[in-house]
């Protein structure tokens, strides 16, 4: 029988769970745990400079690997600083376990120093949270936390650990449970066979079908099945911002991503379709535009592991609750065995129409002889890295340009805060990726507004040698805010301009990194090449781009999917 | 449309706050809420009455089911069911009012459970409409205090909500 203190049990449980890295920041209520961490070498701790960054780092790791990320912080401010990170992961269904210190159980409720009701504060933004009430519960709670975080529709789980649960000299028997069984939590393991059959019949009968795939395909590790089904059918596919990489962007059947800043052809094809096969997406408002005008002629098949995502905003004609990989696999079999075949003439006519849309617009922007366009930067990066880099982004225009012009053929490589839209996400997420993918190129495409929301992490990058490349698309303004003000507020730029930007080169150098400024168009590609050749350095590339550029296409507010601005002057 | 949703919930600290929190987070409305342990001490039974379109009610039940601590739930209003609410009400009762109130209490099959020289305390159970009807019959001017338990419900026949 092995006797361990609560703190040792916690670390031992992490080892038994197979956790290699945790990201965090120490403080009073977590000190027993940090001491236990110090006395072993299996679980490695990465010390960030702000707890929010620890969560984004764990999140970046989780998105790149598909495995749950782990965070350790202290009570009170340590815990509350994680909230934005937790909410970010929650909105994008990212598996995380956030371990929070808490004041001693005897002090809870007395407004003790650094006390916050973390269970209450985190409740709306977690998949679940758990509180330790006896040290012996710790291994079971840790096991349960990872199980809940990673299964079904994944999400963040908070574990609240009062300090007296980790007291060093109080030892209990350590038993790490082999299995987790929860009577009230049983995610679906397969879809309803009858519904799947019905969906396949509808797919075969469709004249203007489209596949609309989302982040669930990546989270559900179903990109192979999706690709196989789509190729087998020969139908067009579009995906959401979160679904980028779930189907190769360079493939002819791929129409690009859809929604507010999606491609003209994908939005047009959605609007005019007669059948939408939605796979692991959730008809988010940034996709549908006005729901009452959404795709009037389309019948909808919706596959999702989370029944609450189905018919939430758009009613599904055929709902299928189940893991996307298992459901798609069954569909592939049924399509292969089906006596009915797709209507070749109708599908050919549909493709002809789609090709016309693609030719009419596609993705384009106007270049300028002397000003660097942000889109050109992303295109150059895509060329120079063969489209194979991990790309994280923050939130705003740079995020949209990155998503539009970097062509991802693989999943888990495009890493952004799609649901919550968290500025400050990009750098720590990139760090989380780089730590476990040291030989891969990791780019953080950001803007001068977003990067300053977690700039302190340059220090963490120095400590752990994380040579990410920060691509700052510097337009000297909060670009997306300014774009909306240009379009909706007669160019009254309320607080969207930053008049006192730091010298990012000196700033990078102050943290011990390399800074490179690019402000002439002819320097763009050669300098980017130099930057990418500096394998061992974190390089902060400050690129002065067109200050007046807008992101297009852009859906017209409260319109249907087909109502878009294609440039500052063209509206369809 | 008004609905009665009955939930079996893990009898654990914080479980109730998750249910209540869900309603406010997602802008659903709670009209009444009752909760108490069941014969199985690991489970609580919670009854919530709410209203909304079919779409909203579908979302409410799905979102409730997503909560890890919700074990099972049923929308009682989908089938034949019995609903009951308990009301205790203090009424001004002096002079000739006393006999009149007594008669009304009898008509509604309530009981006077406490008496002073000027006050009757009445206990009444039934569905919510019946309790409303009693207050209306008495007239609000005579009512000193009302406490209602909120709705509890159970399906008719052999249908059972259990593990």
Automatic annotation (TrEMBL), chain A:
Involved pathway(s): Amino-acid biosynthesis; L-valine biosynthesis; L-valine from pyruvate: step 1/4; Amino-acid biosynthesis; L-isoleucine biosynthesis; L-isoleucine from 2-oxobutanoate: step 1/4
Annotated Gene3D superfamilies: 3.40.50.970, TPP-binding domain
Keyword terms, alphabetized: Amino-acid biosynthesis, Branched-chain amino acid biosynthesis, FAD, Flavoprotein, Magnesium, Metal-binding, Thiamine pyrophosphate, Transferase
Cofactor(s) listed: Mg(2+); thiamine diphosphate
Enzyme nomenclature, EC number: 2.2.1.6
Co-factor note (free text): Binds 1 Mg(2+) ion per subunit.
Top EC class, one word: transferase
Domain Thiamine pyrophosphate enzyme TPP-binding residue range list: 394-543
Residue span(s) of domain Thiamine pyrophosphate enzyme N-terminal TPP-binding: 5-117
Thiamine pyrophosphate enzyme central domain mapped to chain residues: 196-330
A GO term, aspect molecular function: thiamine pyrophosphate binding
Catalytically driven reaction(s): 2 pyruvate + H(+) = (2S)-2-acetolactate + CO2
Entry's Gene Ontology BP terms: isoleucine biosynthetic process; L-valine biosynthetic process
NCBIfam families: acolac_lg, PRK06466.1
PANTHER family the UniProt entry points to: ACETOLACTATE SYNTHASE CATALYTIC SUBUNIT, MITOCHONDRIAL, THIAMINE PYROPHOSPHATE ENZYMES
Recorded family membership: Belongs to the TPP enzyme family.
Protein name per UniProt: Acetolactate synthase
From TrEMBL, chain B:
Matches recorded under PROSITE patterns: ACT
Root EC class: transferase
Keywords: Amino-acid biosynthesis, Branched-chain amino acid biosynthesis, Transferase
Keyword Amino-acid biosynthesis: yes
SUPFAM superfamilies: ACT-like
InterPro entries hit by this protein: Acetalactate_synth_ssu (IPR004789), Acetolactate_synth/TF_NikR_C (IPR027271), Acetolactate_synth_ssu_C (IPR019455), ACT-like_dom_sf (IPR045865), ACT_dom (IPR002912), AHAS_ACT (IPR039557), AHAS_small-like_ACT (IPR054480)
All residue ranges annotated as the ACT domain in the record: 4-78
Transferase keyword on record: yes
GO biological process annotation, one example: isoleucine biosynthetic process
Reactions this protein catalyses: 2 pyruvate + H(+) = (2S)-2-acetolactate + CO2
One GO CC annotation: cytosol
Any one Pfam family match given in the protein's UniProt record, by short name: ALS_ss_C
Signal sequence extent: none
Pathway membership, UniProt: Amino-acid biosynthesis; L-isoleucine biosynthesis; L-isoleucine from 2-oxobutanoate: step 1/4; Amino-acid biosynthesis; L-valine biosynthesis; L-valine from pyruvate: step 1/4
GO molecular function: acetolactate synthase activity; acetolactate synthase regulator activity
Record-listed E.C. numbers: 2.2.1.6
Family affiliation: Belongs to the acetolactate synthase small subunit family.
Protein function: Catalyzes the conversion of 2 pyruvate molecules into acetolactate in the first common step of the biosynthetic pathway of the branched-amino acids such as leucine, isoleucine, and valine.
Subunit structure: Dimer of large and small chains.
Protein known as: Acetolactate synthase small subunit
Gene that this polypeptide is encoded by: ilvN
